[in-house]
């Protein structure tokens, strides 16, 4: 039997990147999935990829919605329960390093950018989780939050608001993990490193620049020791592991780093010691 057979999953931010790969994987592995994002055309591409994988049409619920709005969150949940009758798995994946409207980075980023960034990467997760808890309590379900290695403890000076939001999300994961396990709900999170998705474009990078950024990073061992750029499917497999109670039942409040080794490198490792010492 497929590992998610009989399970119902909501995957936010599934109109692109990591969420799309997770939606395709979950659906192929038997789940009934709600896919969602703001862009109808990109969401339809996800739906078509799922159908192309041989998944029956009735196993997909497609919801065009802004996850930062109350109405969007309500629609995502109510349409899922109306169509599939329950909820087993919530993947809080929608997120972005929203660019500053003036193009500023670092401490020069505006307070409006702070509000928008925390609204998407933190507040919407808290709001949707709160609304999903009664449904997940009924099924003793799973939550997987998508954080980032940008959350710390190393600094990310260029995009402070994004990394602050992800750092707070990590603490939210730990807090909710303990609070909700008493109801049988498991909460865990993934911290991806660099993954080739629409993330760069959402930051305002032109497509070509984004591609160059990813390939250059992957070619530098001090940036990605694995020597290859992470793919959305790499993260999707990790999400599936944490959402699969059979595979990970005793893992609670864990932050699973999936980054090709990026976060293990210290500045001093970037130097060639043989040259420095002689
Ligand atoms: P993408 O830009 O490819 O995908 C982001 C998804 O989030 C899209 O489906 C987008 O849909 C959705 N989204 C953004 N804003 C909203 C909104 N207001 N309402 C509803 N949906 C929204 O990026 P990734 O796949 O890379 O990002 C997925 C997660 O992974 C994010 O949380 C990101 O922070 C995290 N991450 C990514 C890394 C990377 O290198 N790629 C590294 C570390 C973490 P739409 O535009 O249609 O609304």
Task: Explain what you see.
GO terms for molecular function: oxidoreductase activity. The protein has 278 residues and is an alpha/beta fold. It has one domain: 3-Layer(aba) Sandwich (Rossmann fold). The chain has helices spanning 17-28, 40-52, 70-84, 111-139, 160-181, 199-202, 207-219, 232-243, 245-248, 273-277; strands at residues 8-11, 32-37, 60-64, 89-92, 142-146, 186-192, 255-258. It has a 7-stranded parallel sheet with strand order 3-2-1-4-5-6-7, sandwiched between helices. The chain starts with 7 loop residues before the first strand and ends with a helix. The site of NADPH dihydro-nicotinamide-adenine-dinucleotide phosphate has 28 residues, from helix 1 and helix 6.
In short:
46% of the residues lie in helices and 13% in strands.
Question: Strands, helices and their partners?
Answer:
Layout: E1 8-11, H1 17-28, E2 32-37, H2 40-52, E3 60-64, H3 70-84, E4 89-92, H4 111-139, E5 142-146, H5 160-181, E6 186-192, H6 199-202, H7 207-219, H8 232-243, H9 245-248, E7 255-258, H10 273-277
Parallel strand pairs: 1-2, 1-4, 2-3, 4-5, 5-6, 6-7
Helix pairs in contact: 1-2, 1-8, 3-4, 4-5
The protein binds NADPH dihydro-nicotinamide-adenine-dinucleotide phosphate (NDP).
NADPH dihydro-nicotinamide-adenine-dinucleotide phosphate (NDP) binds at residues 13-19, 37-39, 42, 66-68, 93-96, 120, 146, 148, 192, 194-195, 197-199, 202.
